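retry 2 of 3: previous attempt timed out while embedding zinc ion. Reduced batch size to 1 and resubmitted. Inputs unchanged:
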Amino acid sequence: MGNYAKDLSKRFKHVGKGQSRGYCVICGEYGKLVLDHVPPQGSITVTKTEQHLITEVSGMNLERKIKGIRSPNGSKFRTICQTCNGERIGSGDDEVKRVHRAISDQVVAYYAGHSIYPWASVRFDVSKYLRAMTGHILSATSSIECQKEQVSSTYFDPLKSYVMNDDRRVFDTHDFYYWFYPYERHLSAKLVGFFNDGLTSKLSLLSFHPIAFMITEKDKSTYPAQASKLEETSKNLTLNISVSNVKYAPFPFIELEGNQFYMLTDYLCTTSKSLI
Ligand SMILES: [Zn+2]
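retry 2 succeeded.
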């Protein structure tokens, strides 16, 4: 039993089994909690998946076979209320789905030799896209966060207000970046502390093929050279999809060098992978 328990994902303690009520991690209301799919349904081909904490499939745990949480229909988090799931995030999910499908089709066409230009681009509604992606970053967390009232946070409050009320002041406090993500594994990291030559910054990530998406504190963070920034007025999402552009690690997103490192709370950072 001892060894068996050691080799189970710690994520099992964070799915809120038997806990159908709690505080929504977006609006803070107490009530029934529903499942949020991250990545959102329709943006990827949903298959049988296995969920782990990111720390369990990286670094010194790479050689271990830790049993993750299996699901027949994608990676899920029971951390938000029906209103946040259905209306606040849900109203933008179709746009996320459309953007990811359109970029995926162009990636496939490029690697099949049907296009010689290593660029993929789609016209989109930036507000719908950003609010849905931000909402999923907030929801992809441990059920432990739902057991107590939400506390105020200078990092998370503007993000919550943006998802709930389309509060554009978020562009005064945060930056949004994206880049090509050619990996099969999905990553969600609600909060990572990044240290770069004495400067510290907070960031959040949500990456699933073919786009990596990152939120950072405004004008403070390190971001990969190939990243593009999304502005309030952006009309297109455009990516360089050539392999020559893939010189970075899937997580945190660059090869750490010199005086760079990151810190995270393991249960805030989850990964899932198709089992098919
Ligand atoms: Zn809510």
